Hints:
Cytochrome Bc1 Complex, Chain A, domain 1; alpha+beta
Amino acid sequence: MTRNGFLISLLVVPVLVAQTAAPKIPASYKELKFPPLNSVKIPPVTRVVLPNGMTLFLVEDKELPLVRASAIIRTGERWEPMDKAGLAEITLAVMRQGGSTTRNGDALDKELDRLAASVEIGAGTNSSSASMFVLKQDTDKGLEILADLLQHPAFPQEKIDLLKLQINEGISRRNDDASRIHDRESTRLLYGKDSPYARLAELATVKAITREDLLAFHAQYFQPENVILGITGDFNAPEMRAKVEKAFAGWAKGGKAKPVAPAVDLAKAGKPGVYYIDKDDVNQSSIGMSILLGKANDPDYQAMSVMTYILGGSFGSRLTNSIRTREGLAYSANAGYGAGFDHAGAWSADVGTKSQTTVRALELLKAELERIKSAEVTDDELAQAKEYILKGEAFDNDSTDKIMGRLMTYEYYGYPSDFMQRHRAAIEKVTKADVLRVAKQHLDLSKFQIVVLGNAKDFDKPLSSVGPVTNVDITIPDL
């Protein structure tokens, strides 16, 4: 053999070895095998109630020299007066934008930029929030700023006026996006338009809000007993507790009773039936069927979650297979269960389709809700749903901040700290019989609200062929 031939043979041999050692490629994705996920591990958590009543969570995470703080504050839009809707949003936003009595808001922005830090405050429906992000060496300064803003907001009139203008601009444009209109009006029909869980800020309610209202709202709800503060990052827990106590040393107990979650008044909610929102500038229809159900700690929550996934939780769901794949009427069709923590949440099924197939798509949607009540789901459907839910929750636990946020949420709503573990165990126990039982019990189509937004003159059939139709007025009230 020549020298060149010998070199060629040396090059060929590893290739042949590599080919013979290659793993067998499965014929189908169904043959793929994956090891079970690791169990969720909760890092060591320090929980203390400070002398002034503030609840503090601490989790050390020394991966980066950073410190993050987040607070849940027991106040929000559901506690604002109905005739001054928008008060919570304006109060919380101006607390940050306007600065404190000793820190001008614009000067504060420059100081935070210099520190490469952030401090934010905002309102939500069920709660409000505050956050801080700083480099480790700036922890004391960040806590000082956060504590100052929460205790001593300045509420300058020019910032209030500017924010009211911005909110009014949003009100004037709220009917521009069809999907947002559909979601908004579906919620208002479910809870009632005057419900604290569905009311809207209007031009008149925003105009009625004064600086004195902001001061009163802050005085009513901002006390340390209403604050849950969580801090993660590069620190020593006992030392961080001392820093927090120092920063909030001047904040004494307020002594006011903690606000109670307003009840859902079903007597004021919309009645079951078909509702139509006229939008003559669209060529597609938004279709939804919804009903108010229970809370996240209800016994049926896990079985309902599994049933919802099978019905419309993925591209392999029944709704997608029927309406998208077989009929070609929509890109996707979905079902979801937004159970509340302390009040009834909405279960819904939705589809978007072109105007000319509106009623056909709605009929298919209703048919699939009836079908899942008629017989048990398959073994594969049950297994895939449970696997998706359990494995998908891995992304809810892939950072210290997410784990901290979940623990704080459980604290806020009075849930046990191991609720996630209990939830996972309950999902694993769900059976086909459970899915059929909750579907029959909760998916009574005579109790649903059907909301269709679209251009009725282009529909394939009159919407009245589904049932009596009630028109929904989305006109923005003038001052």
